[in-house]
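## Example pair
The file below holds two records. Each record gives the amino-acid sequence first, followed by its structure token line.
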Amino acid sequence: MRKCLYAQMGFVCFAAVVLLVTIALGQNPAPAPASTAAASSATAVAVAQPAKKVWTNDDLGSLPAVSDPPRTAASTKRPVASPGKASAKAPSAASFQAQIARLQAQLPPIDDQISALQDALAGKPVEEQRKFGWQKPGDWQAQLTALQKKHDDIEVQIQEVEDKARHSGVPTNVVP
């Protein structure tokens, strides 16, 4: 009963705050009372300003026809790309070679682990004691599957880098 009463009081308070904020935002502050001298000078300024001309089709017909706006030298110039900026954006063949070499260096240790696990699963004697890399003891098949997936992912990354190099204009005989 008490929780229900507090919930109702909270809702009523929230509704009252929302109502007061809505009312406060809806009201515009009243302008400060102006003296009669200020009011008369404001009307004099408004009268002194010339009325804006409203152009009609008849008025436009008397104007000389303009076929094209005059072109300035600044509007006809186009920005010329500097050769230094273009080469800074496009990666060089050396950067692609470095990426591929880094990825290919990750493959031999994974291949060694895969072959050791395949030998162990085939029943061949294991040369060293098995290291548990957060896998359950005896769960060699799960570790083999994870290593094969990692190997495949690295090969896909190598292919993606080779594709980027080819699309960037690097010759295929430069990229390993």
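Second record, same layout:
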Amino acid sequence: MTMPLELQTPDKAAEGERRIAEAIAAPLARAQRGDRCMDVFDGTYTIENRKTGQHRTFKIALCRNENSGNAGKRIVGLLSGPDNHQDYTAFGRVEDDRIHVWDHRRRGGGPHDFETYARMLWSLATGDVHAVTWRDKGATLHVAGRCLMCGRKLTVPQSILLGIGPVCLAGGI
């Protein structure tokens, strides 16, 4: 949610713009310095557990809200509703070496173990030493695609593999 322009202070707007610019430039700067840094790229990922048949979808995106304390940071969220574009519950931020889960999302007694999700997503996306353990447990990472028929975002593992969503597959388009 953005504040009306008359309520934004120039200092606050400039700070937000600076943080966004730094976040966009950070990966290039690391590469130019020769830093070896694993990175999880912005995008939508689905982790499927082939042993249980369950899956969870995550979105990583740069926070562009200049009035947020997270402006310029890459935020990770869990798909928590039917809209593949907007229904995400944010639970942490991507750092150079991990996904940091916010304190209020840590083992809060809710239905989701965000810390496990963060470790699993990081390991599978970067291929770190723990990725083999997650794969042995049945976890597979899919990068969301688009339906070849209608262009909608695909997040269900079977749809991603087929390249076509359930509506188009059923002949709805």
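Notes on the second record: The chain has a mean pLDDT of 82. Helices lie at 10-33, 114-126, 131-136, 157-162, 166-169.
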